[in-house]
Design a protein that fits this description.
- This is SH3 domain-containing protein.
- InterPro entries: AH/BAR_dom_sf (IPR027267).
- With about 160 residues, this protein is mainly alpha-helical.
- It has a domain of about 70 residues.
- Helix content is about 80%, strand content about 0%.
- The two termini are about 75 Å apart.
Length: about 160
Amino acid sequence: MEAVRKQATKLREQVAKQQQDVLKRFSGGVGGSDNGVTNEAELLLHKKLEKLYISTRAGKHFQRDIVRGVEGYIVTGSKQIEIGTKLCEDARKYGADNTCTSSGTLSKAALSYSMARAQMEKERDNLLKALETQVAEPFKVNGCGGSFGGSSPSCSAI
């Protein structure tokens, strides 16, 4: 009879120990083998999410830099167009007004230069308009739905 009691006590202790192990696994307690796997999976997902956030933020900053560069190029190009147009007008006036040289060679050259320069400025203006509409505006719309100045609350953290 004593041997049966010892064996029953031993079985009760084993069952209690197994119940505690099962409770630890399902309740998130320390020491469960499943818990380690879950933490590793969560850690891996967290790292992937962090990498995605960093690359997205870097992409938005890159877009902002592209927009700033293109806008700077457009402003500079517009000033150059103004100067080129003024030069073109002056050359045209010189060619039309100064016919005092023999056979008007210099006047013809000035008029030809004026027409060529006017065509160049027209093409440059078309290029700048294309850059604005096809590069800068889509990036502005794509990046935070507007200006990159941080006026949008969703972009203030970037």
